[in-house]
Amino acid sequence: MERARSLAIVIVVAALAGFVVPSPAPAQRTPNTVVLEPAPDIPGVITGGTLPEIVVRGLRSADDPLWIPNVGLIFTESQANRVVRLGDDGRVATFVGDLYGPLGMTLNRQGRLISLQTRTGYTGPRVIWPAGSERVIADGFDGKPFGRPNDIVSDRNGGVYFSDLGPRPTPPGALSPAVYYVPPGGAPIRVADDIARPNGVMLSRDEQTLYVNDTGGIHVHAFDVRPDGRLANRRMFATYVGRDGSIPATEAPVSNADGLAIDDEGRLYALTEAGIEVLSSGGRHLGVIPVWCITRRCQNLTFGGPEKRTLYVAGGGTLLRIQMVARGFGARAK
């Protein structure tokens, strides 16, 4: 692991505009290049000209950053089977080790850190911290193991929603991609199975709506949340502008939409091939904050810092941070 350093840094100077037309945007940069682009001015969200800062680079992987009060910023290094903590000196150290390909994380209202494991034989959500509270929450559905759990969010009742992308293609007899809800102390419920590649999941501020990214399409979907945690009234919430340039023009477009975050005004922040796409609470496209995680597109993001005005972005062994005008939602860790 290296700290941020000058290494062929390319700063792309672009005209900044307050209005962004939501037209399809090309895929991000070539892998293994450092590209820092200034953000456009998005009122209430970010000041025009703001650049991302490279905080950490050179890890084996990096995903799902999460800010925990009195702990700070943690994120997963899945390929090293650990969760790491960012120190005040900018270095990382193991926060929780000996895991099984951890990806998405959430902090429930009881202060327990729940992590999705992806290694065969261990797939599913489990409590991994604090020490002494470890336990498996769920390891399968309908007598079958989960495929590849990806992203997770906890609700105020103590339940969790998580997406399961599964392997591609889905092996015969295996679970198909789906979204699950595990009520507190209960068994998992399959709440959505009609999204081809469910990825990022996020609850609205009032927890009446669940947003789900389709990484194999170009939309984010919204569902009404019922009192028992089940979902209803699926609808297309917004269309992303990010496009995977490797997809032939003769095939359906793909955004590779990944992680989601929400701010105190209910705006959604989604990582796609275009960067961070910002949506209003009503689904209006507000603009794109360009980001690139050196080895690949970025994968997940969270608000952090004492006032939750710093956006941390992780992917491909890299951690970035961006100073924001917007403040992250304060009633949940994410």
What's the short story on this structure?
The protein has 334 residues and is mostly beta strands. Helices cover 0% and strands 41% of the residues.
Question: Any overview of this molecule?
Answer:
There is one protein chain. It is built from no helices and 29 strands. It is globular. It is mostly beta strands and 334 residues long. The strands form 8 sheets. It has a 5-stranded antiparallel sheet, with no helix packed on it. The protein has a single domain, classed as TolB, C-terminal domain (Neuraminidase), CATH 2.120.10.30. The N terminus is likely disordered.
Provide the CATH topology. Neuraminidase
Order of helices and strands: EEEEEEEEEEEEEEEEEEEEEEEEEEEEE
Query: Count of DSSP E strands?
Result: 29
Give the structural class: mainly beta
Query: What is the CA–CA distance across the termini?
Result: 26 Å
In the CATH hierarchy, what is the architecture at level 2?
6 Propeller
Strand content: 35-45%
Helical residue percent? under 10%
What is the chains' assembly state?
Answer: single chain
- Report mean pLDDT, rounded to a whole number: 92
CATH class equals Mainly Beta
Which regions contain 5 or more consecutive residues with pLDDT less than 50?
Answer: 1-21
Morphology call: globular
Count of separate DSSP helical elements: 0
| Cα gyration radius (Å) | 18 Å
* Superfamily (CATH H level) name: TolB, C-terminal domain
Domain count: the total is: 1
Spatial order of the strands forming the largest sheet: 1-4-29-28-27
Tags for this model:
single chain, 334 residues, mainly beta, Neuraminidase, five-stranded antiparallel sheet, disordered N terminus
